[in-house]
Structure formats: C-alpha cells, structure tokens
Write a structure and sequence with these properties.
It is built from 16 helices and 17 strands. The chain is an alpha/beta fold. The chain has three domains: 97 residues, Orthogonal Bundle (Arc Repressor Mutant, subunit A), CATH 1.10.10; 108 residues, Aspartate Aminotransferase, domain 1 (Alpha-Beta Complex), CATH 3.90.1150.10; 247 residues, 3-Layer(aba) Sandwich (Aspartate Aminotransferase, domain 2). The strands form four sheets. An eight-stranded mixed beta sheet has the order 5-12-11-10-9-6-7-8, sandwiched between helices. Strands 13-14-17-16 form a four-stranded antiparallel beta sheet, with no helix packed on it. Helix 3 packs across helix 4, helix 6 crosses helix 14 and helix 8 packs parallel to helix 14.
C-alpha cells in the first residue's frame, strides 16, 4: 500500500493553501516515479482520513490536479494517475520552493531607485492626521462625477469615445481644457498642446526624462518638492539648489549662475511653493522669463494648486506670457477634487507633447477614458467652477481659523507666515524645540516633517474647525511634555 501519509507532508505554517500543498506533493511523487502512470489514488474520503483534513480540501486538490492533466477522475468510480504525464509543467512547484517563495531577495543585478522621503500611506491608526495640504473630499462633487461616469459606461457611443485617443488624453477633455485654461489662466493653446497624465508627478517625470541627462543642469528651489527632486535625480542630471525666500526662488542668483555655466532647465512652483507656501513675486516672474529667453533654458512650471488663492486673484502663470515655447506648464485635478483621482495635465509645444506621449505609451497606454470624459462634462457644465468657488470660501475660513489657533495656543513655540492661498501653512519650530519630538505622538500623525528646516506643513483644507482645534490641542500637549522634560 502506498504510504500517502509520508508522500504528502502538510505544513500549516506556510502561506500556501493546504489543497495546493497536497497537489504539489502528488505532482512531485508522479515526477519522481513514486506514483506511476495509471496508479489508482485513494478516494477523497479515504485520503482526507489519512491526511487528517476535510474531504473538501482533498476534492479541491484533486480538481487542481485534474485541471492540469496529472490525474484522471472517473466520477463515483476511481481517481488515477494520468497515462500521459504532462511534459510542460504550468508552474515549477516543489516543496522547498513553496517554503521559500518570494522570501528570498532578488539576487541578479538591477538598478535601485531612491525613495522620495514623502509618506505614501499611513498604516498605523491615528485619531488625527495632519496632511501636507489635501482638499476636503467631503466637499468634492465626486458623486456627480461617478454618476456621469456610470452613464457614459452604459452608452454605446460613449464607450467608443472612451477608447479613442487615450494615449494623449481623450479629445473631449483636452478640448474642454483649452477653453477652461484660456478663461481661468490666460493660456492661448490648442488641444494638441495638452497631454493628460496620471497627476502632476507623471508630468514632471515625463518632461524630465526628455529634457535632462547626465550632461545637463537643472536649478531647483531650496527647500523643494522631494518627489520632483527624485524625478530629476533619476535622469542623472546635475541638480543645483537656489534659495527660496519670501518672494519665491531667487532669480538673481539664477542669473549669476547662468552667466557662469550652461543651465538647461529651472523647476519653479510659482503659487504656494512646496513646502514653504510662498508666492513668486511679479518682478521675479518677469525676470525669470527674461532669463529663459536670454540663456535659453526651459522653465518647468508646476502650478499644482493655482485655483486656491484667497487675498486676491492669483497671478497668471508664466505660461500665459510670451515665452517662445520655453515653458512646460503642469497642473492637476487631484488638488481640486480628490488625491485619489489621478488626473493631471501638461501644456507644452506640440512637438514636445508628441514625444512625451510616446514615452508615456511605453509604460502606460492611456488613462481612464470614461473618467476623463466625465470630467470634461463637469467642466463644460460649470460644475467644476462652482465647486472651486465653494471650496475656496470654506478653505479661506479654515485657514483663518487655524491662524487664530496658532497665534493663541502655539505662539511661544513656533513661527510661521500666513500664506495668501493654498491648502497648508508652513510652520517652523523655534530652535529649542526640535521637530523630531513631534514625529511620534499619541493620536496625531504629521505627514510632512522637515528635519533640515525644523518645520512641518499643516494642511488645513481637509479639516473642519473642530478637527483643527483638536489637532492644535494635541500639539500643545506635545510641546508642554517636551518643555517639562527639558527642565
């Protein structure tokens, strides 16, 4: 009698289902000629009894073996090893491989990618999370957007539209953006100047891959958006940091650099610079455009939250001025609606957009056509403008409420500058209070801390007044604990 209790060894500590362990063991026994062609196997009840498992587990194992032609099942009669053993195995299963699985590290050479340094997810549970400037999803017209999405997915002509031209972005969305960006930002463009992407980060990555290499130089602000920094590093380019003050990036320092060395690109965030939230002044905007024309470098203009400006109307983008095609303009709907809605856009000369589309197509054949067309309808119907108008009023109120809380409760611990727009306040701690003691707090998590700047971003837009108050109270407790500990 064949000792199936020795042929099949079950390890319940493995992450492999028991029925698959049984199947693997029987396959190995067939391969090793322990079980020969035509050999009768025990019935499901009998084998279940031998192995001490449920009968359904054995039935599942037999069904797996039968599907792969290792055994033949004759209902109500017998189970036997197939006469013709499969030559091509669907998976190289062995007991030792199952135990190791993907626990081993990849041993062959491959290129490593530097992490951004920004938190991409929160795995622990916190009562309050201070983000780095997210919109309030509860205010967003997501329900209407999804209703439109479902309607489009159910109509034949809409299905066809959603599958045409998604490499560059659906024509409907690009046409709507032509009108929208002309009206709101003064851009004089056509649909061929627009590439729809999965957010601003993709636009930054694509443009940097085409513009930069190990023989080029790009200027960035100090401090700067870390994800953009990493996209530039991936190209091997030489990165030069220029200080950012209360008027934005120092364009006069850029001018001095241009006089000494060849600069190929400048990355700038003109509205609410990340992370410090400062605005690039009108004087410096004009100067930067002059320098671009004089020294022939590209301006990568990241205008991620243009729409949220409170004290006055926002300045028109650099891309709206006469720039001889040297400005690549980047925007995002994620900051308007929901970070989970990954739709952004790049505006650039047509030949550059064409090449970015080709590069993007190498890894991603296009975005969600239904979602893009649903967004196009939201823009056309004026719903996006209505949402932004409502959200801007609420965010303005929340910014002012946080300003009051910070002055009244945290004034002895911090300094900050109240931004004219955006969705976050850049808060610097006094030197005697190192930012490290805020990293771990009971009930509170801060997503964007800068050790080097001894500062953090306090995103206020996603919190209501009560949540802002609770967050500030928890910060007060943490500062008081640290202060008492130091005495």
């Amino acid at each position: 009698m064949i000792p199936f209790d020795r042929i099949v060894k079950i390890d319940k500590d493995l992450n492999i289902p028991v029925y698959r362990q049984i199947a693997v063991a029987i396959i190995n026994a067939i391969r090793n000629s322990v079980l020969k062609a035509g050999t009768h196997l025990p019935g499901s009840r009998e084998l279940a009894k031998i192995l001490g498992v449920h009968r359904k587990t054995v039935i599942a194992a037999y069904e797996e073996l039968n599907a792969q032609d290792w055994i033949v099942i004759v209902p109500r009669k017998q189970v036997s090893v197939a006469e013709h053993i499969p030559v091509l195995k669907p998976q190289d299963w062995s007991q030792s491989q199952l135990k190791k699985s993907y626990k081993n590290e990849f041993s062959l050479p491959f290129r490593t990618v530097e992490k951004s340094g920004l938190s991409v997810g929160i795995t622990s549970v916190f009562d309050i999370i201070i983000d780095d400037g997210h919109p309030d999803v509860g205010l967003s017209p997501i329900d209407d957007l999804l209703k439109t999405y479902r309607t489009l997915a159910s109509r034949k002509h809409s299905v066809k539209d959603a599958h045409i031209g998604t490499e560059q972005g659906t024509l409907k969305l690009r046409k709507e953006l032509v009108s929208y960006l002309s009206e709101t930002r003064g851009l004089n463009i056509t649909a061929e100047n627009i590439l729809i992407t999965h957010g601003a980060q993709m636009s930054i990555y694509l443009s940097s891959q085409l513009l930069l290499n190990n023989s080029t130089k790009i200027i960035i602000g100090k401090p700067n958006y870390l994800i953009a920094n990493n996209a530039f590093k991936e190209t091997g380019t030489n990165i030069i940091e220029v200080d950012v003050d209360n008027d934005g990036i120092d364009v006069y320092a850029i001018e001095e650099l241009c006089k000494k060395i060849k600069i190929d690109a400048v990355y700038v965030i003109p509205h609410h610079h990340y992370p410090t939230t400062v605005m690039l002044s009108v004087e410096r905007r004009m100067k930067l455009l002059e320098l671009s024309n004089e020294f022939l470098f590209t301006i990568i203009e990241d205008d991620y939250d243009y729409d949220y400006h409170y004290s006055s109307s926002p300045y028109l983008p650099l891309a709206s001025a006469d720039h001889n095609g040297n400005v690549i303009y980047i925007g995002s709907f994620s900051k308007m609606l929901d970070p989970a809605i990954r739709i952004g856009f790049m505006v650039a000369p047509q030949n550059f957009v064409t090449q970015c589309t080709a590069l993007r197509n190498a890894i991603d054949v296009g975005g969600d056509g239904y979602m893009q067309n649903a967004l196009a309808m939201m823009i056309k119907d004026g719903e996006l403008k209505r949402h932004i108008k409502k959200a801007k009023k609420i965010y303005h109120s929340r910014r002012d409420h946080l300003d009051t809380l910070l002055r009244e409760k945290l004034g002895e611990y911090i300094t900050y500058w109240l931004p004219t727009g955006g969705m976050a306040i850049w808060i610097k701690l006094l030197p005697q209070y190192p930012i490290g003691h805020l990293e771990v707090m009971n009930g509170l998590k801060i997503k964007r801390i800068s050790i080097a700047q001894n500062a953090f971003r306090f995103g206020f837009a996603s919190m209501d007044e009560k949540e802002l108050e609770n967050a500030v109270d928890l910060l007060v407790l943490q500062f008081q604990k640290f202060k008492a500990k130091e005495k």
